[in-house]
Amino acid sequence: MPEDRIAGATDSGVAAGPAGAAPAAVRLRTPRDRARAQTEADIVRLGREHLALHGAAALSLRAVARDLGVVSSAVYRYVESREELLTLLLIDAYNELGDAVDAAVGAVPEEDFGGRFAALGGAVRDWALREPSRYALLFGSPVPGYRAPAERTTGPGTRVITALIGILDGAFRAGRLAATGRRGPAMAAGLAGDLAKIRAEFGLAVPDDLLARGALAWTSLFGAVSFEVFGQYGPGTFTAREELFGHHLAVLADVAGLPAAGAAR
Amino acid sequence: MPEDRIAGATDSGVAAGPAGAAPAAVRLRTPRDRARAQTEADIVRLGREHLALHGAAALSLRAVARDLGVVSSAVYRYVESREELLTLLLIDAYNELGDAVDAAVGAVPEEDFGGRFAALGGAVRDWALREPSRYALLFGSPVPGYRAPAERTTGPGTRVITALIGILDGAFRAGRLAATGRRGPAMAAGLAGDLAKIRAEFGLAVPDDLLARGALAWTSLFGAVSFEVFGQYGPGTFTAREELFGHHLAVLADVAGLPAAGAAR
DNA sequence: AAATAACGAGAGCAGCGCTCTCCCATTCAG
DNA sequence: CTGAATGGGAGAGCGCTGCTCTCGTTATTT
User: Fold this and answer.
1) Low-confidence ranges of chain A (pLDDT < 50)
2) Does residue A167 lie within 7 Å of nucleic acid chain D, judged by its CB?
3) Of 2.50.20, 1.10.10, 2.40.50, 1.10.3470, which CATH number belongs to A3-9+26-80?
4) Gap from B63 CA to C14 C1', in Å?
5) pLDDT score of A22
6) CATH number for the domain formed by residue range(s) A89-256
7) Contact B125/B225 with Cβ under 8 angstroms?
8) Do A213 and B58 make contact, defined as CB atoms within 8 angstroms?
9) Fewest Cβ atoms closer than 10 Å to its Cβ: which of A25, A192, B13, B250?
10) Residues whose CB falls within 8 Å of the CB of residue B141, separated by 6 or more in sequence, listed in order
11) Which nucleotide's C1' atom has the smallest distance to the CA of B80?
12) Is the pLDDT of residue B82 over 90?
């Protein structure tokens, strides 16, 4: 009966009662429910450890099962497949990165837009260097044959860009986001349309040129972090990597039109 | 006798004759030599196809062996391990990207520095979109447990940055590389040392600030390409990706101090 | 108390990288 | 031209993987 796989989906997290309209919140009444929640958490925790230690491609359900002290087929009661576990770890990592970024940005005064941008960039880099395998899962080559389910990952996956957009829009509304002396290149029609849609979707005030420059700062930030984490700088070339990153961040802030960190309001 | 694995290394490519000082060039005298060269080429070709179709993590020596019409153990006569094949494919991909970049840059007049930069960026993006799996092998998350042997990959692996450095240094020597109106951030001591070493190693004239900005343009270029190839832009947001990339390239050229493409000399 | 659902164990399948042994054909030395 | 050395393919095998299925036990629901 292969349908018990489908029936099993009922168990995962959202447990609908027999009445049907039971609250979706976790119900930990019975010992079995508690045991299940504990096991699910253990699997994610062990998976996170394996991921951090050996990388995504080496993540093995059998190894997790061994660490859990259980035979391999048993973990399939909790996780549909290896991909499902990867998705859980993806969300987990996105949220941890998002938390780190939010904390770093929140620690800087709201009106210090340059400082907030620097904090955001530094938080991304720090987390990436601390968790290279998990960073690679988020921003490296997609795991072959695996596509993250958008409906579950877009939320946590957009926290960094959301924070960045918040900084840029806040700076613009405060009259502190200024195009650099040079004019940007002319905006092509299709790109202008995309930017208008983004502006509408997020309720932004930032004009096209500055929005596009913000997108460049975004991709460039992750480009710099990825080069460092993935070892694209040769072993001999750049040794003062924190200084290099700091320089890049400062230039990128200027590119985006942000004032320098700590600039007087 | 595990030593025949070491003895086998004698066969790969550089075949030293019994006299010892035989020329290192390929000697295809006997039919067996020709068959070996053919098989080696076939393995790389099939590996490239599998890599392009299914990605690096799914590259399987057994599958290559099947396509080759041979039992799996036979390919170990030609390739030491799966890693060895990955290294061959890495070099292969680096060189193909380098060729594409060199061709694109070479098609633009030498004094059109902005145009050469745009051609370089466009060539990287075009190749990456054409060969996403191979691009991922070069610039994505490192394959876990696999570290590319530097002595074999640094040469082909540095062709793009070498070309970029050539453009920047050429522009500077021609007096066409100018810092933008704004001054860059102060250069920290360690970073200045790195830059001095790079300048000496490549025989460059470019000063610190412009060299660091060139490094930023470099990482940012690959950041933009990686975001596009790895699907970091959501499905709905940026649709006019070529225009977005063109905008980014133009801003990056400006950041690096390069004149606009086609600018009068 | 009976029925139902959850769950762990175990066997099993196909695939993987890699090793080793065996055997045949080619190549080379005398 | 003959005998030794070498190259290379076939096959079996080891331990690993993801995943499926069955079976017996235990907890929960009715």
Assistant:
1) 1-26
2) no
3) 1.10.10
4) 14
5) 36
6) 1.10.357.10
7) yes
8) no
9) A25
10) A55, A56, A136, A137, A140, A141, A230
11) C18
12) yes
